[in-house]
Amino acid sequence: MSMPAPWPYPRWIAHRGAGKLAPENTLAAFRLGAQHGYRMFECDVKLSHDGVPFLLHDTTLARTTNAARAWGAQAQPTAGAHAWGALAQLDAGAWHSRAFAGEPLPTLAAIAAYCLANGHLLNIEIKPTPGLEETTGRVVAEHAARLWQGQAVPPLLSSFSPQALEGARATAPHLPRALLLDTLWDGWRETAQALGCVAIVCNHALWDAALIAQVNALGMRTLSYTVNDEWAAQRLIALGTDGIITDRVDLFAPA
Ligand code: G3P
Ligand code: MG
Asked: Is pLDDT at 2 greater than 70 in this prediction?
């Protein structure tokens, strides 16, 4: 039985920057999460059509930007179909509230600059446009390796997509990887091992003592998303899991 390697990341991780208190996956959200004491953040990263890694959760621009209003309802809604020069013009804050109107979509490079300047750590969830899984893994890992070059603690790269993690492994094998699981699908253990993952990031309801023992026996850490209730957090802490990704930066004070 192998033991998990030393773990450089804190227990508490702010989901998409500051959960729902600010527009998700924006620099404004990171600043707000940091004001609440968080020093590690999760964000979703995909590629523009011209290969720039930037932060966005959904495949389309509809929910969290003003693309339809700015470009017209006929505009292609898929974010990855647009060049970064166009995406950079969008408002990714007004949908949330007036206070954040004008907030842009950030590049991974901008978020790296913010995190590195402030000593914050990052969990980059590779969230590919469907069909671009391996390419997205490769490009995000290549950028991450360059942006964090020489840093003591690298970003943790995670994905629901094994192909994206395979792309990341092929490009930057030294960057730590984690497999995200919403269900315990057949072959997840073998897949995580083959990808050299250091952690499993599970839908929090899936964790129990037996699963934690299995994952630890593979030499991997145990993290959870998205934990927004006190009782759920207490359960995960009592079980001895290693990381909790939360929207509720206002409820949970990271130790
Ligand atoms: O990375 C953890 C969590 O963010 C995964 O789900 O859909 O919120 O990106 P989602
Ligand atoms: Mg995510």
From this structure: no
